[in-house]
Structure formats: structure tokens, C-alpha cells
Design brief:
Strand content: 15-25%
Helix content: 40-55%
Shape: globular
CATH topology: Spore Coat Polysaccharide Biosynthesis Protein SpsA, Chain A
Distance between the termini: 34 Å
Structural class: alpha/beta
CATH class: Alpha Beta
Number of domains: 1
CATH architecture: Alpha-Beta Complex
Order of helices and strands: EHEHEHEHEHEHHEH
Strand order of the largest sheet: 3-2-1-4-6-5-7
Radius of gyration: 18 Å
Number of helices: 8
């Protein structure tokens, strides 16, 4: 088994009290297989259920666990930015706290690293969601591939391992779920090297998605358009200034 120098594993959590303990414990059992130096961070993004109580107990029992608490919900993008900003190790692994991915599959990502790899991106072997979510997800995937010129198989798979230094080179601004598009697009445009690995996706066992409702879909459509405009404007500014690498 390949071992890395150090890893920060983190989970954004919003009302994930029913799943976050098992996610953290799975990570704690898996990380020693891939590194001798690790930490687990959970960003509690203003949860109103029993997430905070679960996290307090995990932090008390496990010294490797660190909790970041947002008193008010900052959105998915805000939670990710907080996690990336607080990670201290050479590599950052993240996945969601809702239990739809298995932290034990981190070993697959590590095994895919080569000398020039900067990011290992998971892609869903099969999406286990209600049919309407699968259909909307496929439409979303095709639309954003066309809008942003993505090359990855699954931009929307939140199961990633990245070198921390990547975040010295890109600046993220999104506060919503569009942060994944912004992040991958900026990494891609900055020339970072990706590897892709198939991972399993599971039915949601607790709670419900914050994304798949009509008002949120409308907001997401607006946010996608604004992100597209912002990235085009940034690209135009870089080309006008003659800078070869816009993120350094």
C-alpha cells in the first residue's frame, strides 16, 4: 500500500447527525493505511439537529479530530472553503458527511497517484438516488460540461484527494454548490494534473438533500450563469494582461 507524507481528511456537515459519526470513524480507521500523519476535520455548517453533540463526543474521544463550527449556515461552498482553509497537511481528502460515499475508498484514490498527479477525482460507478434526482443530475452534468468545458467524467462527485498547495494557486469564491464547478474549472485551467477513479455511491440513509427542490434549482441556475460570466471575465482579464498562469 502506497503511503503519503500527511493527509487532512475533512467532512462538511449540515444536519448530518445520523451519519457523521460513522463517516469520521471510518476515516480514522482508513487513514493509517495511507499515511502516518493525519487529521480529521469536520465543518459543522450551522446544523440544527444533533450534529453538534455527536461532534463534541468524537472530538473528546479521538485526538485526531478537530471541529470547525459555523454558528450560522454559510452554504456548501462556505463549508468547503472553511475546510480547505483549515487543513494543515500535504494532501486534502474530502467527501460529504451524509454517508453517500465510503471513506474507506480513499485507498483507491491514493493508489491512483503518480509522480505528476495533483488531484485524484472520484467518479460514481452508479448513482443510487431516486429517479428524478438521477435524471436531473445527468442533465446538470451535460449542461455544465458544455458551459465550462470540463474534461472530467464526473465533475459533481464530491470524493476528492488534492495536494494542499493547489489552494495556494487558486482562490475560491462560491458559497453554494457551484463551488465544485468553480474549483475544478480553476484547477483545470491552471494546468493541474488529474487522475480519475471509480467509487461507489450509496442511497442516502439519513436526512434529505438540500439541493433537489425547485427554488434551489432555480437559484442554482442563476448561480451557474453568474459563475460562467465571472470565469469568462477573469479569463478575458488574464488574456488582456498577458499573464500565462492566472492563479499564481
Amino acid at each position: 500500500m502506497k503511503k503519503l507524507a500527511s493527509i487532512s481528511a475533512f467532512f462538511p456537515a449540515f444536519n448530518d447527525g445520523g451519519t457523521i459519526p460513522s463517516m469520521v470513524i471510518s476515516a480514522l480507521r482508513t487513514l493509517p493505511r495511507v499515511t502516518d500523519d493525519y487529521e480529521v476535520i469536520v465543518v459543522n455548517d450551522g446544523s440544527s439537529d444533533h450534529t453538534a453533540e455527536m461532534l463534541e463526543e468524537l472530538e473528546r474521544v479521538y485526538p485526531q479530530v478537530r471541529i470547525i463550527t459555523h454558528p450560522q449556515n454559510r452554504g456548501y461552498g462556505g463549508a468547503l472553503r472553511s475546510g480547505f482553509g483549515n487543513a494543515k497537511k500535504d494532501w486534502i481528502f474530502y467527501t460529504d458527511g451524509d454517508g453517500q460515499y465510503d471513506p474507506r475508498e480513499l485507498v483507491r484514490l491514493v493508489d491512483a497517484i503518480r509522480e505528476d498527479t495533483d488531484i485524484v477525482n472520484g467518479y460514481k460507478i452508479e448513482r443510487h438516488d431516486p429517479l428524478h434526482r438521477v435524471i436531473i443530475g445527468r442533465m446538470y452534468h451535460h449542461i455544465v460540461r458544455l458551459m465550462f468545458g470540463f474534461h472530467l467524467r464526473d465533475v459533481d462527485c464530491d470524493f476528492r484527494l488534492m495536494k494542499r498547495k493547489v489552494f495556494d494557486a487558486i482562490k475560491l469564491q462560491s458559497t453554494s454548490g457551484t463551488i465544485c464547478l468553480e474549483m475544478v474549472k480553476k484547477m483545470q485551467d491552471a494546468g493541474f494534473k488529474f487522475a480519475e477513479v471509480p467509487v461507489h455511491h450509496f442511497h442516502r440513509a439519513h436526512g434529505k438533500s438540500q439541493f433537489f427542490n425547485f427554488p434551489r434549482l432555480v437559484r442554482t441556475a442563476v448561480q451557474l450563469f453568474l459563475l460562467w460570466k465571472d470565469l469568462r471575465r477573469e479569463k478575458g482579464s488574464r488574456e488582456h494582461s498577458g499573464k500565462s498562469n492566472p492563479f499564481f
